[in-house]
Write a structure and sequence with these properties.
The protein has 321 residues and is an alpha+beta fold. Helices cover 17% and strands 28% of the residues. It has a six-stranded antiparallel sheet. A four-stranded antiparallel sheet has the order 7-14-15-18, with helices on one face. Strands 8-9-10 form a three-stranded antiparallel sheet.
């Protein structure tokens, strides 16, 4: 039981970390030590006399109020990681930053021909069919839609002009080739209004010997716009916290995440996998580390392949250095 005395657990509220009460801390540490994925504990508020049951997701490192569904980030800190704080002085860390995102309609679409800079192919290869409809090419002066076209950055596949001009090819002002996934234009998302705060702390993520970048996302409750799943219905906001090592690699990924946030790609409104709640702000497929420790199974560090994976996820949405 030595690890239970060494480790401390914290939840995020009002822009700072607060330590669990002793009962909750013992319950969560016991579950963590036994490699359980979830657990519950009951908190008794001495002022109101009410009892609140919290569920803990130890993979996502979240605390969920079972009555309201409200979620908070949690983190675990043991003595070994706490002892590293003295190595990295706060005086040398960068100042905090704040970004604000305002939901906006999709960019005005332009002609597919202009966006992809396609070229007409009067005589495509004999064994090639349209990569969309899979039918062959039979160009004729009376039906220009049958003409073959090639997108400027694609290689080895062609489309009927008519297929390429299908409105479904255009998604929020950009086109993604259905064969090689090459993007044409700038992809944007339907992220709701929110904020991205960036700060720094002197202690280290597990497996690193440097300070830590702290990213705080805050999305208030709101009404869904025409770009979202259920226009006109209210949605539940959320707060999320993520961590990156404050080194060269972490700094580069931070800059990419800032671009993705400003393009509205990091969050969307949908169903929470954790709580099952509908119409709530959720992650949108670009993974973050929500714990400084615990390894990949707890969405924390160390995780040798994390940076390669998150770069791939960002690149798939056109966010690259």
């Amino acid at each position: 039981h030595q690890s239970q005395h060494m480790a401390k657990w914290f939840f995020w509220e009002h822009h700072s970390w607060h330590q669990f009460d002793s009962i909750g801390e013992a319950a969560v540490e016991s579950a963590f030590s036994n490699q359980e994925l979830t657990c519950e504990s009951t908190f008794h508020n001495p002022r109101s006399g009410r009892q609140t049951v919290y569920k803990y997701d130890l993979q996502k490192m979240e605390q969920i109020n079972t009555e309201t569904g409200f979620q908070r980030p949690i983190r675990r800190e043991d003595d070994a990681r706490a002892s590293k704080r003295a190595r990295h002085g706060a005086a040398d860390l960068p100042p905090p930053q704040a970004l604000t995102f305002t939901a906006r309609p999709a960019a005005q679409t332009c002609a597919v021909e202009q966006l992809t800079e396609w070229t007409l192919v009067p005589d495509p290869e004999a064994d090639k069919d349209c990569a969309i409809c899979t039918f062959g090419f039979e160009p004729s002066p009376s039906d220009p839609s049958e003409t073959a076209v090639k997108f400027s950055k694609c290689t080895g596949h062609y489309f009927h002009k008519g297929c390429a001009e299908n409105p479904h090819m255009m998604q929020r002002g950009c086109i993604k080739c259905p064969i090689c996934a090459t993007l044409y234009g700038v992809q944007t998302g339907n992220q709701p209004d929110g904020q991205m705060g960036i700060s720094y702390r002197p202690d280290s993520c597990e497996g690193y010997d440097c300070a830590t970048i702290v990213i705080d996302y805050l999305f208030p409750h709101g009404m869904q716009t025409a770009e979202m799943a259920n226009p006109g219905l209210p949605y539940h906001g959320t707060a999320r916290q993520a961590f990156l090592p404050h080194n060269e690699e972490g700094g580069k990924v931070l800059e990419l995440l800032k671009i993705a946030f400003e393009r509205g790609l990091l969050f969307t409104v949908g169903e929470s996998i954790t709580t099952g709640r509908q119409n709530t702000v959720v992650w949108n497929g670009i993974h973050h580390k929500t714990s400084m420790a615990g390894g990949a199974s707890h969405h924390g560090y160390p995780d040798e392949t994390y940076f390669a994976r998150v770069r791939e996820e960002l690149a798939a949405r056109g966010v690259v250095e």
